[in-house]
Amino acid sequence: MSDIRTIAWAAAVAVAVTLSAPAGAADQRRPPPLAYVPPPIIWTGFHVGAHAGFAFSGEDATSAFFGTPVTLSTNPSGVLGGLEAGYDYQFSPNWLVGAELDLSWTTASGNFNFITTTPAGSVASGIFNSNHHWYDTFTGRVGYLISDWVLYAKGGAAWINTDYNLAVSGPFGGGSVNDTRGGYALGLGAEWMFGPGWSTNLEYDYLGFGNNSYALGGFGTTVNTHVQQIKVGVNYHLLPGAIFGWF
Fold first, then answer.
1. Phi and psi angles of residue 80, each rounded to the nearest 5 degrees, phi first
2. 6 domain-assigned
């Protein structure tokens, strides 16, 4: 009888050990949790977006209708906003090249009031007004990647559309003209990919348009214009292959 009890007790102990062993072994075999790996940042591909900012211009109009050249400085300034679209190609872990078209509409304007005496002794007074309507640029850029940031420089072509108005008292008359002028664009910026497919950027641009001459009021007036822009933008980046499966 004691042998039967001994055997039963040993069997119970064996069953208890057997049932408890897999739990400990399972705990030892359980793999550690996987560390979170963020998705890779992809700069290659097309992007579209919008921007807003400010424009500050240096603009001098030199006119000879007084017999001697007189400089009329309007220096238009105002807000701007617009759209952009472009393509970037990341050709190494830390470098990319790209191209972008920017279309910006602006409220930049400026006036210059004057009064003077002509060589003939007549008093002439008036106002010269400049209204900038839009700035467009088509530029290439080179960027250096640091984590989810890209620092870049850009350069290319620029265009401006402007109204010039000259109003003069007395027999001198005045006149107005609308013109679209071409020039160049240079810029620096920083862009941050803050989420999958989304980035924001801060950019400074310098647009130079040189000298253009106009016959305002029958007199020759030469206008020299350069524009400085500070812009903040947001872009959405399409994955490679999103355009017809190619880009």
1. -145, 160
2. no
DSSP 8-state secondary structure symbol assigned to residue 171: G
Cα-flanking dihedrals φ and ψ of residue 7, to 5°?
Answer: -65, -40
Pick out the chain residues at pLDDT < 50.
244-245
Q: Domain residues for 124?
A: 45-237
Q: Is the Cβ–Cβ distance between 183 and 162 less than 8 Å?
A: no
3-class DSSP state of 102? strand
Chain position carrying tokens 């007395």: 170
CA 133 vs. chain centroid, Å, equals: 18
Place of tokens 């355009």: 243
CATH number, position 196: 2.40.160.20
What is the Cα–Cα distance from 217 to 111, expressed in whole angstroms? 17
List the structure tokens of 74: 């309007």
CA-wise closest residue to 135 among 163, 106, 177: 106
d(CA 224, CA 221): 10
The whole-model pTM stands at 0.81
With respect to residue 182, please indicate whether it lies within any of the assigned structural domains: yes
CA–CA separation, 92 and 59 (whole Å): 42
Q: How many domains does the chain have?
A: 1
How far CA 59 is from CA of 71, 86, 173, 189, in Å, comes to 10, 30, 22, 25
